[in-house]
Structure formats: C-alpha cells, structure tokens
Amino acid sequence: MITAVELRPLKTSDLDAIEEVERASYPTPWSRSMFAGELSKPSGICLGAFQGEDMLGYLIVARYVDAWHVMNVAVDPATRGRGVARALLDKLFELTGDDVERGYTLEVRVSNHIAIHLYESLGFVATGVRRGYYTDNREDALIMWRDPGP
C-alpha cells in the first residue's frame, strides 16, 4: 500500500495527468474531450489519487437512474498493485453509501484477471458478457454488478 495518498475530485487542470495515465494504461485511450465531458457533468464522480503533484490513478463514474457506472479506472503502471484502485473504489462507496437506489456496474476485459479479482473482492459479481466489446481486439467484456449498500 502506498502512503500519503490524497484522494480528491478531479479538475480540468488535471487533464494532462489524466491523459498520461490513460495512454500508459489502455491500447485505445479515451480522448481528452471525453474526459473533459465527464468532468463537466455535475451528477458524476471523478476522483484522482495523488502523491504530492503526481497522479497515481483516477476513477470516472457516471450516475444513471439505477446504477453508478464505473466507466474508467486506471492506475499508473509504475504504481499498480499497491492499493490505489481499491482506495479509489472504496472512496466511491463511501461517497455513495447512502444511495440505496443505485447499485454499481462496470465492464472489464475478460483477460484482466487482476482487475476482476479486485472487483470480486469488493463485492462485484459477474452478471453477463458483452461480446466483442473492446474495439482494439474485439475482446469480450465481463459485466459486473454490486448491489447498493455496504
């Protein structure tokens, strides 16, 4: 686990750092405008994990009628395996814990066993598959769900 990590809402001034982590994390990264769009939505939750001035990772979550949709979570490759993604998700659950109307959903590559294990340890369960979901290689996505509450 990393010490002295600050979790805070993301700002547009964080876009350069977000893009850097995104490009290092995904073969088909989101565009800057996609991130800017999510940051501008008052209903969503966009959190960053920082150590000093350095961004370690981020979490982008959209609020829908029946669910909080974890749309993007990424951790700088040099910082992976140290609890940053877990801390971001725990903060999401803390911020939304009173919302008994919405569960949580996300998609994850079927080959991303480390992420799937993390999500399962946080109470997510596999509920289906989106065939050919990822545009870079047509890999399937596992749909995962977590019920509202603790």
CATH architecture: 3-Layer(aba) Sandwich
* Distance separating the two termini: 22 Å
Number of strands: 7
Shape descriptor: globular
CATH topology: Aminopeptidase
The helix/strand series, from N terminus to C terminus, equals EHHEEEHEHEE
> Largest sheet, order of strands side by side?
1-2-3-4-5-7-6
- Sequence stretches where pLDDT stays below 50 over 5 or more residues: none
Determine Rg (CA atoms, Å): 15 Å
Beta-strand fraction estimate: 25-35%
Estimate the mean pLDDT confidence: 93
CATH class: Alpha Beta
Q: What is the CATH superfamily label?
A: Gcn5-related N-acetyltransferase (GNAT)
Sheet of most strands:
7 strands, mixed
Number of domains as seen in the coordinates: 1
Instruction: Output the number of helix runs.
Output: 4
| Oligomer status | single chain
- Give the helix proportion (percent range): 25-40%
Structural class: alpha+beta
